[in-house]
Design a protein that fits this description.
By secondary structure, the protein is of the alpha+beta class. The chain is built from 20 helices and 21 strands. The strands form four sheets. Strands 14, 15, 16, 17, 18, 19, 20 and 21 form an eight-stranded mixed beta sheet that branches. The chain has a five-stranded antiparallel beta sheet with strand order 11-10-9-12-13.
């Protein structure tokens, strides 16, 4: 029964596609014969070797050949036996596919936590339980399958196929160490996605007797874990105390000692493995230093925003530890980890150059993964002081992977990456172990058919809003990218006051979305390219790859490339705005362009494309401005009581205006500084939600 659920994808995941091809060729020359059959096992003969199957199926089959693991003889015997049983089943009534999947579903849902803990160990079960709770919504794990169940993780990029049997029968499509804990995570993720209640792992605490743990491998980890928890608890209290002291003293009255204390706490947070908090504390130390130096980049209001976010993160970490959890998006990572992504089929969408505020310049290539329905990127960057690195020239230089002549060759082509390395943010590593191959010809019209364009701006805004509702949510830069397919393109204009290109796009409901690109050395070519586009020049159905971002004018898009769906088989469907030259117009086109310019002079002036700035509710603006004034001058001595009285008054007026969450600012035994920080955090959260509406 289990063997009947295997297909070619399952056999390839069991071994690899090369062995599968060899096994099928061997079956064309030789046949499988049954040597011995019993209720517990079945022994088959193939090519002078004997292959033994038991109740665990092909994943645990044994072959008499010297090869380790699943060999081509096991695959050939399994396929041959599958063909024999299929011919016998054709004469009888086979079970419907729905019944088969229901049996597999029941088997996975009935796996108890005790069995999972025995299989991977207590530490492995604890890791898997935390891994599943760190998954970012339904998109992080995908459940599918026709003949069997497929459980797919987005990161690390791996899939498990279940045809029945025990936990060892969960077949992974990649070779990964400590596979047992990932199998347990796959079962827990499946149970959770179907409404199952996951049993929390046993807590590890100092109340357990160390003598009982002598000789166990995980004793050291448990003792270190307890010391780490104590260190984190003291660190959180110290951070909250320092932040509240800053508010009490007033952000206009900070000293060099405050800066040094933030720097010290940042080192402590790094040692306590609170990496995200360590980054925030370093940023706070730098900001306080800028304030003391009266630098132009310093701003008390921005410092208050950062203090409120750090205060919110500390409280979120405290609440998570109380529940016995350490969410990865709150804790952070010491450095980005790249996991094996196997083989990836990608569509090249172009590239862009950039310069960061910290003095780095780089080139970023953008890709679309049809299988994962997600954007991926690969970046090559260097410090600006390295004069030998030119991002514009890098676009036509060799690499970054073996087999790729230059990033320019990937634009508009289907790229197959073998041995790809991918991190959780959707960034591809430029590792030398990764190799690339491309189709010999361009994809033409079939390229655009594999994309997922947005045609309705309201739906696009709603999807983006769902992805970034929480201030403490993990950044997901790849989800800011989108493929836009406007019904029509407006005429681009350059706003000289803001030194920004503005290009309106209209959707199927005739709603406008502004494409904006701020002038810089890196964007000059792209701006010049867009300015050359006349109204109505782009063919119907032309798509635009762009990065979405918020602004004072609402949601805007930064262009990357144009995609022409009606490009010929030998034409490149992707026009990279940052690098490609504009097509040379013929005589007829030049004459029509001249006619358009002449007629446009007699028309009325074009309306202002800039949208009105987003205005926050008056009650919210007044509440936030009041908190900012209190934080600037401090709330010591008598000012604390006056601030509490004013806070109660503002809470009532804000609640009457619909901002009911601000009434939850005041909690028993909280100091006025705690209430001010909590109030400012809620104001920031309100602003984030309003911006995304």
């Amino acid at each position: 029964m289990q063997l009947s659920r295997f297909d070619d994808e399952a056999f390839a995941a069991l071994a690899n596609r090369g062995l599968l091809r060899r096994a099928k060729k061997d079956l064309e020359k030789q046949h499988v014969n049954i040597i011995d059959e019993s209720p517990d096992a079945l022994t088959l003969g193939f090519d002078s070797f004997s292959i033994r199957f038991d109740i665990h199926g092909p994943a645990q089959a044994q072959c008499s050949c010297p090869a380790a693991g699943v060999c081509q003889h096991i695959l050939a015997a399994a396929i041959g036996l599958q063909q024999l049983t299929a011919s016998e089943a054709s004469n009888a009534s086979a079970a419907p596919v729905e019944d088969t999947l229901e049996q597999l579903h029941t088997a996975l849902m009935q796996v108890a936590s005790s069995e999972l803990s025995r299989y991977a160990g207590k530490s492995g079960y604890r890791w898997a339980w935390q891994f599943v709770h760190d998954l970012d919504g339904e998109e992080a794990v995908k459940i599918s399958g026709e003949r069997h169940l497929v459980i797919q993780f987005v990161h690390p990029r791996m899939s498990f196929r279940y045809m029945g049997g025990g936990l060892d029968s969960l077949i992974a499509d990649v070779d990964i160490s400590q596979i047992e804990k990932y199998r347990v995570a796959a079962v827990l993720a499946y149970q959770r996605s179907h409404g199952g209640n996951l049993v929390a792992p046993e807590p590890v605490g100092k109340d357990r007797s160390a003598a009982l743990d002598l000789g166990k491998d995980h004793v050291g980890a448990e003792l270190i874990g307890e010391a780490l928890r104590d260190s984190r608890t003291r660190l959180r209290e110290s951070v909250k105390q320092l932040i509240e002291e800053c508010i009490a003293l007033g952000l206009s009255h900070l000293s060099r000692g405050i800066c040094d204390r933030y720097a010290t706490l940042a080192v402590w947070a790094q040692g306590a493995e609170y990496y995200r908090l360590a980054l925030m504390l370093r940023r706070l130390a730098d900001h306080v230093k800028l304030l003391l130096e009266r630098a132009g980049a310093a701003d008390e209001h921005r410092l208050l925003d950062e203090l409120a976010l750090a205060f919110g993160l500390v409280n979120a970490l405290e609440a998570a530890q109380t529940k016995g959890m350490s969410p990865s998006y709150l804790v952070g990572q010491a450095r980005s980890r790249y996991e094996g992504g196997g083989t990836l089929e990608l569509l090249g969408l172009g590239a862009h150059t950039w310069r960061s505020a910290s003095g780095y310049v780089g080139l970023t290539m953008m890709f679309w993964s049809p299988q994962d329905q997600a954007f991926l990127s690969c970046t090559d960057a260097r410090p600006e002081q390295q004069r030998n690195f030119n991002p514009m020239a890098r676009y036509k230089a060799v690499g970054p992977w073996g087999g790729l002549g230059a990033p320019a060759q990937a634009t508009g082509r289907c790229v197959t990456l073998t041995g790809a390395q991918l991190n959780a943010a959707g960034r591809l590593s430029a590792a030398e172990s990764t190799s690339a191959s491309m189709k010999s010809s361009k994809l033409g019209a079939s390229f655009s058919e594999q994309l997922k364009p947005s045609k309705n701006w309201a739906e696009l805004m709603q999807a983006r809003s769902q992805a970034r509702r929480s201030l403490l949510g993990e950044p997901q830069p790849m989800k800011d990218w989108a493929v836009l397919q406007p019904t029509r393109y407006g005429a681009p204009q350059f706003d000289e006051a803001r030194q920004t290109l503005v290009w309106p796009l209209f959707d199927e409901n005739d709603q406008s979305l502004s494409v904006e690109l701020v002038y810089s050395e890196q964007t000059a070519h792209a701006i010049a390219r867009v300015e050359q586009i006349e109204r109505g020049q782009l063919p119907a159905g032309t798509m635009l790859v762009a990065r979405m971002r918020g602004s004072v004018n609402g949601l805007v898009a930064e262009p990357l490339s144009l995609i022409r769906p009606h490009a010929g088989a030998d034409e490149n469907p992707v026009d990279s705005l940052y690098f490609d030259a504009a097509p040379e117009p013929d005589r007829a086109t030049k004459w029509l362009d001249k006619l358009r310019r002449l007629t446009s002079r007699t028309e009325m002036a074009a309306p202002d494309l800039a949208k009105p700035a987003l205005i926050m509710p008056r009650a919210l603006r007044e509440f936030r401005h009041w908190v900012q004034r209190q934080a600037e001058r401090g709330v010591v001595d008598g000012a604390a009581q006056r601030a509490l009285d004013q806070l109660l008054t503002l809470q009532e007026s804000s609640s009457a205006a619909g901002l009911t969450a601000l009434r939850q600012v005041s909690l028993p035994n909280d100091s006025v500084t705690t209430q001010l920080l909590r109030a400012h955090y809620i104001c920031l959260q309100y602003e984030r939600l309003i911006e995304d509406v």
